[in-house]
Amino acid sequence: MLTDMSMRICPFCREKIHRQAVVCRYCKRDQPTVGRRRKNSSGWLAAITATAVIVSATAFLVTEFIRERNIWSK
Ligand SMILES: [Zn+2]
């Protein structure tokens, strides 16, 4: 039997169900969405990291700019 990439096996009843299925159509049990959740959390982490980098870079530039201005004004 060929493995269909759009299908997966239900961990509760071992029937073939759609990969994106939230509820098994055979046993009606909620399907674990570990893969999708992990993808979302890594996306969140990347977004937070990017924001932190941008904020720290901006803070650094502003600090440098203020320091330069203080030197010039003297
Ligand atoms: Zn099932």
Classify the beta-strand content into a percent band: 5-15%
Globally, the shape reads rod-shaped
Summed up, the helix count is: 1
H/E element string? EEH
Q: How much is the radius of gyration in Å?
A: 25 Å
- What are the low-pLDDT stretches, counting only 5+ consecutive residues below 50? none
Strand line-up of the largest beta sheet: 1-2
Helical percentage: 40-55%
Quickly give the structural class: mainly alpha
Mean pLDDT metric: 87
- How many beta-strand segments? 2
Distance between the termini: 81 Å
> Any ligands, ions or cofactors bound here, and which?
zinc ion
Count of domain modules: 2
What can you tell me about this protein's structure?
- Helices cover 54% and strands 8% of the residues.
- By secondary structure, the protein is mainly alpha-helical.
- A hairpin with a 6-residue loop joins strand 1 and strand 2.
- The radius of gyration is 25 Å and the shape is rod-shaped.
- It starts with 6 loop residues before the first strand and ends with a helix.
- The mean pLDDT is 87.
- Zinc ion binds next to loops.
Could you list some keywords that capture this structure?
two-stranded antiparallel ribbon, 74 residues, rod-shaped, binds zinc ion, 2 domains, mainly alpha
Could you write a compact summary of the structure shown?
With 74 residues, this protein is mainly alpha-helical.
